[in-house]
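Can't paste images in this forum, so I'm doing it all in text. The chain is below; anyone willing to post the predicted structure tokens underneath?
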Amino acid sequence: MGEDLIGLVAVTLLFGGGTLFLLSISPVGKAVAARILGRQSAPVDEDEFKDDLKAIRAELEDLRALRTDVTELAERVDFAERLLAKGRQADRLDAGGR
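Text version of the structure:
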């Protein structure tokens, strides 16, 4: 279970970092950085802004789908571990009865 959590965190950080990187190089990210630094930002091109927004939304949807896949995979691993544990327990009971 600990390995599953580590994998989930790794995937989240990987895609979250990618999203933050894309945001940082987008006009929105540049405008936020300029505002934090107290500078006036250049006017934002609406078409470029819309394209960046679409890209961010698409990546967010990919992350949501990936989260669903990781959750399903974790459930399957848990199920397989339970089956293996039952088999080992049955083997021990058979060996003890002989």
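The first helix runs from residue 2 to 25. The two ends are 34 Å apart (CA to CA).
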